[in-house]
Amino acid sequence: MADRRRINGPPGGTRPPVFASLQESSTDIANRAQRQRQPTELRKIFLKAGLIPTASGSSYLEFEPSASLAAARSNPKSLIPPSSALKLACTVHGPKPLPRSAAFSPNLVLTTHVKYAPFAARKRKGHIRDASERDLGVHLETALRGAIIAERWPKSGLDITLTIIEAEDDRWWGDAPDSHDASWGMMNVLAGCITAASAAIADAHIDCLDLVSGGVAALVSDDSSQSASSAPRLMLDIDPAEHRSILSACVVAYMPARDEITELWLKGDSSRAALDRNDGRTGHEALIDGAVDAARGANTVLAEAVRESIARSFA
Amino acid sequence: MAITILPPVVEDARPYEPDSDDSMSMDSEEDVEMTGISRPHKRPRLGNSNIGAGIVTPGEVVTDDPQWMRGHGTYTNPLSTSIIATVAGTVQKTNKLLSVHPLRARYTPEIGDLVVGRIVEVQSRRWKVDVAAPLLAQLPLSAINLPGGILRRRTSADELQIRTFFSEGDLVVAEVQSVHQDGSASLHTRSLKYGKLRNGVFLAVTGTGGSAASSSSVKGGVGAGNSASGSALAAPGGSGTGGVVRSRRQVWTVPTANGGGEVNIILGVNGYIFISKNPEGADAASSATENVSITRMEEMVSSSIYSSQNDDIPPQTRREIARLTQCIRVLVQNGVRVDEETVMGAYNASLQVDLEIGDDEDEEDEWRQEGREYLEGAKAQDILELVKQQL
Amino acid sequence: MSSQRQASSASQVPHLSPAELSYLYTSLSLPKNPIRPDGRSPTQFRPLSAETTILPGTNGSARIGFADGTQAIVGVKAEVEKTVLAADTLDSRSLAQHGDALNREGEEGSAAVSGQGEWVQMSIEIPGFRDDDALPVFLSEMMRESLVGSVAGGDVDGAKEMAGGLKGRLVINKRWHWRLYIDVLLLSQPLAYPLPLLSLTTHLALLSTKLPKLKSTGEEDPFFDDDWAAAEYLYPRSNTSDPSLSAAPSYPVRPPVTLLVIAVGENVIFDPNREEIAVADAVLAISVTRSSDSETLKLLSIRSIDPPSRLTQPGIPNSENVNMIGATAAPGEESGGQEEVEGVWRPRRGGVKRGVIARMVKTVLGKGGVGEEVLEGLEGVEVQ
């Protein structure tokens, strides 16, 4: 939806210049980010709850920059960073009374708002939420509503606002937009949103069944290797910029204490996953399990962050 | 097969053919066969004689004769004496009062109607109830039986815990106590027949024809209007004239087949229907159908009239309740009026159809048997045929 | 209608009393043999009537109606558009070629051009909802995602045109492409979650979509055969030139179908109506398609949908009901109220077990499963 109330800059017009020398040297391959982590190794997460004093609960989450990004920052070869790392802030307002006009609700009414900062992605986002941001909001709401014990707070509302300060890329910047087109970065963003929102809700002291955390797994085929039989491999916590082709990805919101999934979003062709021969699972089951493992990893950070924020309030 | 996809059916588009005994024939000298070319804008009526149950459309002059008074569904032009219809429907006359009775209207409450309604709003001393009427009905706190074993006045404590009686979404069966100037109804549940509904399923019927028939002769709304003109059953795929009609009994108990036990059916005059398991205990059942004297009431109130906990309902009963629900759906979708007679006819017919099919397909595999309880589609026609035969 | 729009959730919460919810839930969760309110079997769909090519002004269209009167119409329109290189990409190779192209017009590039997902635009119009409400946005993203994401298996005969999936099919040449507008119109307020209806209608509309035959070749500016009879189907059909065999055209590639599946207790139920979805423990939208290179169905996407049961009103057990004096001695005390009491409705809490998800997906994908039957049923629809 076009933003008619403001004078916007040219759509997608902001891009650093690329110099011809770079073109000629065809450092294409060399500049390409490569995954340095093990397939099951997650990026480090920085998560801190209770940073915004005016909100009843808040949190800030940051993913560790990938190795190539860190290298590029210390020793810049190009003006374009090879990848980006997720940074987002979450605020929770409430529980507060519903507006007078609202109908009676025996449960806590949850409202989620996901917004990219205009500068969050390589392409500038408008000020009004677009379809993908609304879509993310719905996903997040589904994930959280399963965890919150809503009937403890009748007739009240809870506003959860996520601001994405730096988003994940959908692909390596140098790749044409068609190579793997789907918005894989959005899935990472959603996983981050879930984890951060969960911390903020806990920080706001709202009753929850369990801390719900997000995790992403993907089937990746890096055809850089010459072997033709490169079946796609399962990787946890992917950085889309590090991969040539992502076949399918899955994000879950997971509650470890109950072993339950409150939100599942899987897309892409998962039928050709390379699994162990004696592995009876199908591709999508493996993918979901992988995402659950990633969510478990994030949950340890989440629990620690919540504990830390409580300890701070005691001190 | 999990899915059935049918080619589109051309709706019955044959031109209107008046029945031989149709009252349209009264103005036969210029009756237009609904060719769609022109509608008689002004249809000269035979002065004082025969303003019968012909069908008029909005804007059509019903009569020029000044001796008639205008009633519902009409208006008069101040400059002339003609009475002009404002709704499409049949003309009705009561003495010298002319009114046009819409063929299909929403429910307009009348005093004494038994209705099923859903609570949509809780206010400080009353509930707002959806009864499929244009306006929400109200149920004052003073019009319900308060618990406590004795008949007593409402207290402020009752007002504070008003949601413990009825809350949003709850279903109630009630009676229309009074109708206000604006057409909204005031309900009461001061009888043991009435109160919160549970142990069953709710069904909202479309095409409810409980229109405002002020004269007692046409009580029964559209269904009765139809039968007056000689055809109780509209053609399948008809214009949705089916629906609940006012009848002798709106509440009855069905002894169901297949070990389903007894099932209560409540046909709200407003088209809302509730089908539930008959509560255990014959005395409760009998007292629910009879009028309990006001003196005995206090003993009865303590029972579970405000409970929202279901009894234990065996699967057989659930199956038969589902069957009854579908029978009513089949009736309504085919434009048949819904009352005790037709519902029971359809129910028995569905049992019979099942029996026949069961004979045919004895050797079928297990999975073919799945979904055989689904009555819409081909089975609906069989059921309908059988119902028609019985009527 | 405020009751329908309560909360911004993608799923609507119908007003049902706790007693009704409890009755429905127990009926639907009966082990092995759930009793649905309309007597259907768990995998049975409501019968529907379908027709295609109903709108002469479109490239393809379809209509599907349920017996209860809910209908959906889908019109597909295609427009030719100039391909612009997206501003945020910088494939150096294509950049170099772009520069060359200025000098040497019409040089055949060796790199195959593949399409972009944003060339497919989908909009869903549901009466009673604004077009930026959560439900239409969520639905259109869900359906577009599987549509764009479906990529054909590859080297099967006839599937070549669809090599890049729907996206690839939209490429005319390097500088031009088709833009596809899929507009879905629901004719009445939805009586149930409208996903299956919309998805099936879109499927049929895409099958009936034709694009004019291209007469130009290579990198020329495209011009087309103005004979509509010569137009080609968007989803190509196997060459059944023999008219006697063309009764049921077979498609190497078919558009995806999104099915709505709910889990209630141990049961997996398809095509739920409004009441059934209100008591579901889990709601999944599962998109599948079939390509000719494999016999089995291919999973394209799964999305969980917020089950409306989480927002429902809890029932009060008789033991805690203050109006039932005599049943228990001490009413009103908040004695936990967490444990399940038979016959009392509790809003669903928590999520889904992985086993349940696996079972739901399996029912769709399995051999002779529901997904196959639905696709077969859709094949039976005559597409002109």
Automatic annotation (TrEMBL), chain A:
Q: Which InterPro entries match?
A: ExoRNase_PH_dom1, PNPase/RNase_PH_dom_sf, Ribosomal_Su5_D2-typ_SF, RNase_PH
Q: In Gene Ontology terms, what is one molecular function of this protein? A: RNA binding
Name the coiled-coil region(s): none
> From what superkingdom does this record's organism come?
Eukaryota
RNA-binding listed as a keyword: yes
Q: Which UniProt keywords apply?
A: Cytoplasm, Exosome, Nucleus, RNA-binding, rRNA processing
Single Gene Ontology BP annotation: nuclear mRNA surveillance
Q: Which Gene3D superfamilies match?
A: GHMP Kinase, N-terminal domain
Where is this chain's protein located in or outside the cell?
A: Cytoplasm; Nucleus
Q: Where is the Exoribonuclease phosphorolytic domain?
A: 41-206
Family recorded in the similarity comment: Belongs to the RNase PH family.
PANTHER family associated with the record: EXOSOME COMPLEX COMPONENT, EXOSOME COMPLEX COMPONENT MTR3
Q: What is this protein called?
A: Pc21g02070 protein
Native organism: Penicillium rubens (strain ATCC 28089 / DSM 1075 / NRRL 1951 / Wisconsin 54-1255)
Automatic annotation (TrEMBL), chain B:
Q: Where is the Exosome complex component N-terminal domain?
A: 55-94
What GO molecular functions are on record for this protein?
RNA binding
Question: What do the Gene Ontology cellular component annotations say?
Answer: cytoplasmic exosome (RNase complex); nuclear exosome (RNase complex)
Chain positions covered by the region annotation Disordered: 1-57
One Pfam family matching this protein:
S1_RRP4
Can you say where in the cell this protein is located? Answer: Nucleus
* Presence of the UniProt keyword RNA-binding in the record: yes
Q: Which residue ranges does the record assign to the RRP4 S1 domain? A: 106-178
Where is there biased composition of kind Acidic residues?
A: 18-33
Key words of the record: Exosome, Nucleus, RNA-binding, rRNA processing
User: What are the GO BP annotations of this UniProt entry?
Assistant: CUT catabolic process; exonucleolytic trimming to generate mature 3'-end of 5.8S rRNA from tricistronic rRNA transcript (SSU-rRNA, 5.8S rRNA, LSU-rRNA); nuclear mRNA surveillance; nuclear polyadenylation-dependent rRNA catabolic process; poly(A)-dependent snoRNA 3'-end processing; TRAMP-dependent tRNA surveillance pathway; U4 snRNA 3'-end processing
Q: Which InterPro entries match?
A: Exosome_cplx_N_dom, Exosome_RNA_bind1/RRP40/RRP4, KH_dom_type_1_sf, NA-bd_OB-fold, S1_RRP4
PANTHER family to which the protein is assigned, alphabetical: EXOSOME COMPLEX COMPONENT RRP4, PNAS-3 RELATED
The family classification in the record reads: Belongs to the RRP4 family.
Name this polypeptide is given? Exosome complex component
State the organism of origin. Penicillium chrysogenum
From TrEMBL, chain C:
Q: Which Gene3D superfamilies match?
A: GHMP Kinase, N-terminal domain
Q: Which GO terms describe its molecular function?
A: mRNA 3'-UTR AU-rich region binding
A GO BP term here is: rRNA catabolic process
Q: What is its main location?
A: cytoplasm
List the SUPFAM superfamilies: Ribosomal protein S5 domain 2-like
Q: Which of UniProt's keywords are assigned here?
A: Cytoplasm, Exosome
Q: What does the entry list under GO cellular component?
A: cytoplasmic exosome (RNase complex); nuclear exosome (RNase complex); nucleolus
Q: Where in the cell is it found?
A: Cytoplasm; Nucleus, Nucleolus
Homology family = Belongs to the RNase PH family.
| The name this protein goes by in its record | Ribosomal RNA-processing protein 42
